[in-house]
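TA notes, week 10

Several of you asked for a full example with nothing omitted. So below is the full record: structure tokens for the whole chain, then the designed sequence directly under it. When grading your own attempts, check the secondary structure regions first.
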């Protein structure tokens, strides 16, 4: 009898906690339909849903990576009788995709999806479509990706970056080579490890013996709001040299000589790689430029040459230093044939060849998207520190 009384008391307490009575175990407020979003089918078709019973229009927006849904090209959802809007897209190639909803003119993330990817000034919902072993989450040893806050003396404020440490780093004592990986315009230090899948790509390459274990530093290349046409060379380059490199190379167990230091970046990050790497060529033995080049060198979509000395004029002494070029073990470029910066890449490569640089350049299928940049990382990382 005593046990039964205690049980009844416990039930009564739980009932009070969940705002129900013991006689009527119904929620205090009516519950809407169960919404699953996103839903990835076995054939890689993805269905997006949102409950918005009072909305007049709902559209699916993308950062440009979902085929057929680019900037300014949203896809309209259909409203069901239960107030749930939905749309199916695909089948999609394996990869990670950013998206959001526009509900009656208001942009929102997917309320049913906790996975997100940060840009410079907004957040996207994120869905991963499996099917590519080299970037899928697999049963292999995994490294760790950490958010690191640091004080930037150059900018006089706190900043954040992401750092990938390989499997076994926490338990070991040895040093590792260091790879600085830069994002593109409008993105952030979160982008390479979320939509870029960088940690999983490195995990799989290291587990397969295709890449050497390394520490990857992923900084925030924007120092404020970004808009097309604004100068790219500005506050980030001195911050990188004066704050990011010395602080990270002191904090993590990495080699600090040229032969164990690499840098690569996509789009804006590719231009920053050149703006930092060439003037400091004595510090880097490996440079990678993805879908990018010297902005303004070819005009058109790559912008016009800014006033003042050109990149070539400012770096002439280094460009013609045979000793520095001999120590550059890898100078790697890749751009999609349909990329709006392909002319910029070609002109940049031609300029470096005129200065007798030994470099690698390839044009792939595709455009200015993460589908290509993940592939470029997959190809570039195994070439480092060999």
């Amino acid at each position: 009898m005593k046990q039964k009384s205690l049980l009844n008391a416990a039930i009564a307490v739980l009932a009070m906690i969940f705002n129900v009575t013991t006689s009527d175990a119904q929620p205090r407020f009516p519950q809407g339909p169960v919404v699953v979003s996103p839903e990835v089918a076995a054939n890689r078709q993805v269905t997006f849903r949102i409950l918005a019973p009072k909305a007049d229009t709902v559209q699916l927006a993308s950062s440009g990576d979902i085929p057929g849904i680019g900037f300014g090209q949203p896809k309209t959802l259909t409203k069901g009788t239960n107030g749930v809007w939905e749309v199916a897209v695909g089948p999609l190639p394996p990869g990670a995709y950013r998206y959001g909803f526009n509900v009656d003119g208001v942009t929102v993330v997917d309320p049913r999806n906790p996975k997100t990817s940060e840009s410079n000034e907004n957040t996207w919902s994120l869905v991963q479509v499996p099917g590519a072993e080299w970037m899928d989450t697999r049963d292999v040893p995994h490294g760790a990706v950490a958010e690191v806050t640091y004080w930037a003396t150059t900018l006089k404020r706190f900043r954040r970056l992401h750092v990938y440490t390989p499997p076994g780093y926490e338990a070991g004592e040895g040093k590792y080579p260091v790879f600085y990986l830069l994002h593109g315009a409008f993105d952030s230090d979160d982008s390479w490890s979320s939509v870029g899948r960088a940690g999983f790509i490195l995990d799989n390459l290291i587990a397969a013996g295709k890449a050497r274990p390394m520490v990857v530093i992923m900084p925030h290349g924007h120092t404020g709001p970004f808009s097309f046409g604004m100068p790219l060379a500005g506050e980030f380059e001195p911050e990188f040299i004066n704050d990011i490199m010395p602080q990270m190379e002191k904090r993590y167990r990495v080699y600090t000589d040229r032969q164990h230091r690499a840098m690569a970046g996509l789009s804006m990050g590719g231009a920053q790689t050149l703006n930092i790497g060439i003037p400091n060529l004595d510090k880097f033995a490996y440079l990678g430029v993805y879908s990018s080049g010297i902005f303004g060198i070819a005009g058109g979509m790559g912008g016009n040459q800014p006033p003042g000395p050109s990149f070539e004029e400012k770096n002439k002494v280094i460009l013609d230093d045979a000793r520095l070029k001999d120590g550059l073990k890898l100078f790697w470029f890749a751009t999609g044939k349909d990329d709006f910066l392909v002319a910029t890449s070609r002109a940049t490569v031609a300029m470096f060849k005129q200065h007798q640089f030994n470099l690698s350049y390839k044009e792939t299928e595709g455009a200015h998207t993460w589908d290509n940049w993940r592939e470029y990382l997959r190809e570039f990382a195994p070439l480092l520190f060999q």
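Residues 11-18, 20-25 have pLDDT under 50 and may be disordered. Use that as a sanity check on your answer.
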